[in-house]
Amino acid sequence: MADKEAAVYIVDVGKSMGRRRHGRPASDLEWAMRYVWDKITTTVATGRKTATIGVVGLRTDETSNELQDDDSYSHITVFQEIGQVLMPDLRKLRELIQPSNTDEGDAISSIVVAIQMITTYCKKLKYRRKIILVTNGEGSMSSDGLDEIVKKIKEDNIELVVLGVDFDDPEYGVKEEDKDPIKAENEALLRSLVEDCDGVYGTLEQAISELDTPRVKVVRGIPSFKGELRLGNPEEYSSALRIQVERYYRTYVAKPPTASSFVLRSDAAAGQDIDGENLLTSVRNARTYHVSDESAPGGKRDVEREDLAKGYEYGRTAVHISESDENITKLETNAALEVIGFIQSDRYDRYMHMSTTNVIIAQKTNDKAILALSSFIHALFELDCYAVARLVTKDNKPPLIVLLAPSIEADFECLLEVQLPFAEDVRSYRFPPLDKVVTVSGKTIKEHRHLPNDELLNAMSKYVDSMELVDKDENGEPVESLAPRLEDSYSPLLHRIEQAVRWRAIHPNEPLPPPSEKLTQPSRPPEELVSRAKKYLDRVIAAADVKKVPPKAKGRKRDREADKPLSGLDVDELLRREKRTKISPNNAIPEFKQTLAYAETIDAVRDAVNQMESIIENQIRSSFGDANYDRVIEELGVLREELIAYEEPGLYNDFLRRLKEKILSDELGGDRRELWWLIRRKKIGLIDKTVSERADVSDQEAKEFLSSK
Fold first, then answer.
1. Cβ(577)–Cβ(594) below 8 Å
2. Cα–Cα distance between 361 and 416 in angstroms, integer?
3. Which of 294, 335, 646, 650 has the largest count of CB atoms under 10 Å?
4. Contact 108, 149 (CB under 8 A)
5. Which residue stretches of 47-106 are H helix?
6. What does each C-alpha distance from 174 to 22, 181, 204, 206, 479 come to in angstroms?
């Protein structure tokens, strides 16, 4: 269980915080809130009720705090009492945290207010307590009672963090020129207070720069198996080895937060004003099951889920196995980790891994098991071999075959465990050799157009050498220039989604910021390396005779020659077939394509489209229910794609407008609105300018046409 936390953020909202300094596009307050919002939203994202937050405003126009009767605590307002922060609270804070019209207010007094809030909320309970003050250090500060404040902070075990806008920090390399003397005195006062409290003092620039580094979530290990490691059958042999062990994840796939489906609440959709409430409500799924029944209304009869039975496919037939028979097929197993063999480490292939890695350790409070497992680990290490075992994590669970490898470090030893494949999981594929070509007759060819020649091999070898990520140290020894470190290998997907969610929670209408530099850096090779290897790459391009493939020609299909068969024979010409002028409703799509292929004028294309329009409308009129809808959808799709290729989008758009009007006005054999719903679902809408340059319809107009009813 995670520790209880209570953090109070003190935000300086004084008048001076609304100014922009040193060429920054944002004000001091906006710049500071980048850090504060990031920390608050990270806590909110956890969803933990025990991770509580309070927010105090410093140098506010009004005064609202527990100690407000004392004039020393004026212009300090508690924006958020300590508690779990939710989305409505974030919206409220976003409105409250704005630059005020005064610079009155004491930062030291605001720390006292925060201490009082933590003392009242946490009492004597075990909490991780923290106060974060963000200020530009301007205005008056009183040094009275600092010793008592330091004493109270230490007694309550509160961590004090002070971050200042343009505070001097020689270690980070920040120094503000022409600093105001009052600000310099305040910085010295805050620094001495933090040092006496053993807290953290720094400049805001460093804190914001560190936000680009993704924060890794530290999780507590939960055992996925507790049981015996066995060598031999203890039921038959008293000499069998039995060690009480536990299994934990060593590596585990971190998944990004999942999205859920929500809809706008009915009262919000009706235009009612809902202050501070969530306008969305979750979507609930309901499933119904039905079977064909001619005697039932509509030809279908609903059935309950309890009446369903499992059917296993056997060819194209469903074979039913009753629940009583299915129990016979289940393998009865007992939870255990049983060693079934050993293998030398040099005979094991790494590609046999089928899962992430786990660690096997002895039972933590069992000294006998710890000694026994240590002996087993050292025996494997000294013999340079691995153990193969059968793992059943729970009774009646399917067994797994795993590999156990010894791992011995200075202060820790364990067995590394990874899943192995069964015989059915192994697939063997044969590929042709890369250095020769074997003909059908069995002849071996060393020189072929599909094989690289010596010039290309030499050029590629030098190019690969030039891309080596190796530098030389002071002694001339090779060292890796980009040595990957485990602590720097972040998941771009995970952290980018989390960053986007946190940003959108605070800035619902602003564009998302670019991804963190830490996430994109591994995807870009060093510029010096690219420039150094460019001449070798040019040699590879020349030796391989690499040519740019021309882009696929779009449109003007009627101006291009028809595709000729490889034989060079024109079958239509040999059979002396006449050019098609009439399209048959029974074979509309192929004959429409043939008609367009021989169309020499725009009038011929227009005539073919008119014929298809007539065929489609007749199919809709004669459709019994939705019997012809699939055929109509297919014909519309072909018509759209062909007219895009022939660069005649106007013919299709005019036809679709007429078709929509007739469908919605019930002119095609009654109510055919379901067909229009299918057209919208398949997105067979107007051809816009993003699809064809000759279209006169914008993307927005096409979307509105398709969405309107």
1. no
2. 9
3. 646
4. yes
5. 87-96
6. 12, 17, 10, 9, 33
pLDDT score of 619 more than 70? yes
CA dihedral 371, 375, 378, 380 (to 10 degrees): -130
Q: Give the contacts of 174 (CB within 8 A, at least 6 positions apart).
A: 166, 167, 168, 203, 205, 206
| pLDDT tens, residue by residue, 297-306 | 878 888 998 8
Asked if 87 and 278 count as a contact pair (C-beta separation under 8 A), the reply is yes
Query: Among 183, 201, 214, 117, which residue's Cα sits nearest to residue 156?
Result: 117
Nearest to 14 by CA among 132, 134, 115, 113: 134
CA dist., res. 111 & res. 102, Å (int): 19
Residue 676, SS3 per DSSP: helix
Q: Return the H-helix or E-strand segment holding 338.
A: strand 336-344
CB-side exposure of 356: number of CA atoms within 13 Å? Answer: 9
Weakest mean pLDDT among 101-110, 250-259, 321-330, 666-675: 321-330
| Residue closest to 468 by CA, chosen among 525, 518, 519, 522 | 525
Cα–Cα separations (whole angstroms), residue 265 to 92, 273, 278, 505, 708 = 21, 12, 9, 19, 22
- In the block, which residue shows the tokens 């990520």? 469
Hey, what are 674's tokens? 């379901």
| DSSP category for residue 476 | S
Question: Cα separation of 393 and 338, whole Å?
Answer: 11
Name the phi and psi angles at 404, rounded to 5. -115, 120
| Other C-beta atoms lying within 10 Å of the C-beta of residue 107 | 27
pLDDT per residue over 73-102, tens digit each?
Answer: 999 999 999 999 998 899 899 999 999 999
Q: Which two tokens stand for residue 50?
A: 């025990």
